[in-house]
Write a structure and sequence with these properties.
Strand order of the largest sheet: 5-4-6-7-10
Number of helices: 10
Radius of gyration: 19 Å
Length: 301
């Protein structure tokens, strides 16, 4: 990051916000445990991808810190499709498991879509099952993908009522862009999904009261694409080389954008920490639904 001073009032601190979410989850888990109910999250890791191993380890630590049971299943890289599907079915049938997460990417010989759609939709805390995608799209109760859910929480916290605001999402992935659009539509935003091939993309972005960048291109969106006072949520996490060093940057050029935006998430320290926090929130929600108890206030979509 350059020497341009950061407007701290405009900064959306994802680390602090996610810590607050985890505290609220832990408080609700404590109430459930007093009733003899402990939420459980099962994470399945196939192979030895270093980044995936770090993610899984962090998920396990934070799951246990929230008072939940953490079940980790590490399988060799040559695990067969049948063996993985059998494990998913075993977890589906386990009443102690309320959330199931199969860490992506899977080795090339495995069919990721088949595995994700074999998960019980009620335990699909990643929100990737086709049934949950359809429920979200039709405005029904669903398990919602963690990253979009975290973005929505931060937007509601910063802006309050989102009704009537113009929202532009740059990126059309099934993991972020599309579910983000559905969530903002449910909050009565006027939503545009743009992408790298959108004509006059800069002009489209300049109309946004809410700009969500999730396209996976480092610093693609400069400050002069941002409407003065807009709220910018930068989902991108890109590694770049600068002056012989590797650092993380978002899809937004933070230095020029933060001088214009009314609020902005940094990278790192913005959306990233919210993903695991929302995974815990989703596991808690799944547990409450399974037990027929009220859902945790403010931790669902």
């Amino acid at each position: 990051m350059s020497d341009i001073p950061v407007n701290q009032e405009a900064l959306i601190d994802g680390k602090a916000f996610s810590a607050n979410v985890r505290q609220r989850v832990a408080a609700h888990v404590a109430q459930l445990k007093a009733q003899g109910i402990t939420p459980g999250l099962a994470v399945v890791l196939v192979g030895e991808d270093p980044a995936s191993e770090v993610y899984v380890r962090n998920k396990g630590i934070q799951t246990r810190e929230a008072g939940m049971n953490s079940y980790e299943h590490k399988l060799p890289a040559d695990t067969t499709q049948d063996a993985l599907m059998a494990l998913v079915e075993q977890l589906n049938a386990d009443d102690a498991v309320h959330g199931i997460l199969v860490q992506l990417p899977l080795p090339d010989h495995l069919d990721s879509e088949a595995v994700l759609n074999a998960i019980d939709p009620a335990k699909d805390v990643d929100g990737f099952h086709i049934l949950n995608v359809g429920l979200l799209a039709t405005g029904q109760k669903a398990m919602v993908a963690c990253t979009p859910l975290g973005c929505l929480m931060m937007l509601r916290d910063r802006l309050g009522d989102l009704s009537g605001l113009n929202a532009v999402i740059v990126g059309r992935s099934n993991i972020v862009g599309k579910p983000m659009a559905q969530l903002l539509l449910r909050d009565s935003c006027t939503v545009t999904i743009a992408h790298s091939r959108t004509r006059d993309l800069g002009e489209v972005c300049r109309r946004a009261d809410i700009l969500v960048a999730a396209v996976g291109r480092p610093k693609m969106i400069p400050g002069d694409w941002i409407k003065p006072g807009a709220t910018v949520i930068d989902v991108g996490i890109n590694r770049i080389e600068e002056a012989g060093k590797t650092r993380l940057v978002g899809d937004v050029d933070f230095d020029t954008a933060q001088a214009v935006a009314g609020a902005i998430t940094p990278v790192p320290g913005g959306v990233g920490p919210m993903t695991i926090a929302c995974l815990l929130a989703n596991t808690l929600t799944a547990c409450c639904r399974a037990a027929g108890l009220p859902e945790p206030d403010g931790l669902t979509a």
